[in-house]
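Let us work through a complete example step by step.
Step 1: write down the sequence.
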Amino acid sequence: MDLALLRSRVREINFSLHGVPATVDGVATRIIWLVSGQDPRPAGGEFGRADPRRTMALRRDHVPEIPRGTEILVTEHLLDAPAAWVVDSTDEIRSDHIRVVVKPTIVLNRLKAYYTKDEVSGARQDSVGGYHLTDNNSVGSVAGQISNAAAFDNAGSQYLSRAGQIDLDGALGITVEGWIRVLTGAPVSAVYFFNGAFFYGWIALGTSNAGPQAMHFTVANVTESSSASVTMAYDTWHYVVGRYNRVTREPSISLDGGTPVVGIPLTAHPVMSPALVAGELTVGGHTPASFSKSHMDELAVWNKYRTEAEFAEQMALTRPF
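Step 2: predict the structure and record it as tokens.
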């Protein structure tokens, strides 16, 4: 095996075995990701596989026993931030190493809602958290990036909504991402709007004109707001990612995997607006008169600030579940 490739698969990790065995707590060791082929990042992305589990090798003298369900914090790829993995199973490779199969806990507890929008009419189902969206005024359907997409007509005041709050705490930031195709003649309108206890923000279209359309991602609290903006062409599918960085208190927006545009920092984190409906989520518009003329597909809501590498994988037409 190529030495550089081998080194790219070795990671330092530090995790707790929670007293199993009782004398072991706060283990520090090295792992080797066991992957096939020449590229440690498989084509199709991290979630492109049917099975999201990974396999690592650990030294038995460092880690004599790991119970199922133990969480390990380690990077999978050299340029990635550390990610949380939970142990699914273990077995012996040889006398001095054990093989540990892990699965990403982010799939289990950081992806809060995912709307494929495959439905041709009626409610749009959340495939992850059960936060389904109600159809208002007969939202349509067109061919999307993966299967179908929702089609919104501002003339008919069409939008999708959820009155109950999505479980977002914002502790690791927020990411909203998905495919959007703005149609010619689209008015100034909301595309995505959320007024939750720990996050108040929206993605909206800017001033309508004959050329590229402005797309804004805005976050706000009761005294201030901050926006980041990009321009996009009409009648073309674009992958739009709006993020809130909890550390810097900055919003950012990215188009088609390009360099994110960052807004100015807030002085305080976004909080629910008392003047609007508590916990409200709307897609495709917002009452009373801010409705989109667009198509939308594969909307994901994450309870974390996603890295460029992470959302680039989803942009490659995969679903993270």
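Step 3: interpret the result. Confidence is low (pLDDT under 50) at residues 1-8, 14-25, 36-50.
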